């Protein structure tokens, strides 16, 4: 199980907790500390290119898609 705890750097107590967790993470490999901004860049360059390629294809070939109703009918039992 993984837990997410968000701590804002708004006062000295929160900064103290963040620093303590950072220190603990050096001794305990099960503890990982990330700044929220660090999680925004989760795709590799290759993945970003593939995502852009697929996105552009979808936008330029919108008539090839299916409506949610069509997909829903195939997925849900009658």
User: What fraction, in percent, of the residue positions are helical?
Assistant: 40-55%
Spell the H/E element sequence. HHH
Instruction: List low-confidence stretches.
Output: none
Q: What structural class do you assign from the helix and strand content?
A: mainly alpha
Query: What is the overall silhouette?
Result: elongated
Q: How many runs of DSSP E, i.e. beta strands?
A: 0
The DSSP helix count reads 3
User: How large is the share of residues in beta strands?
Assistant: under 5%
Radius of gyration: 22 Å
Instruction: Write down the domain tally.
Output: 1
Q: How would you state the average pLDDT, rounded? A: 88
* Largest beta-sheet details: none
N- to C-terminal distance: 36 Å
Detail the topology: elements first, then pairings:
Elements: H1 12-27, H2 45-60, H3 68-75
What's this, in brief?
The chain has 78 residues and is an all-alpha fold. The chain contains 3 helices and no strands. It has one domain.
Overview of the molecule:
With 78 residues, the chain is an all-alpha fold. Helices cover 51% and strands 0% of the residues. It has three helices and no strands.
Features:
elongated, mainly alpha, 0% strand, 78 residues
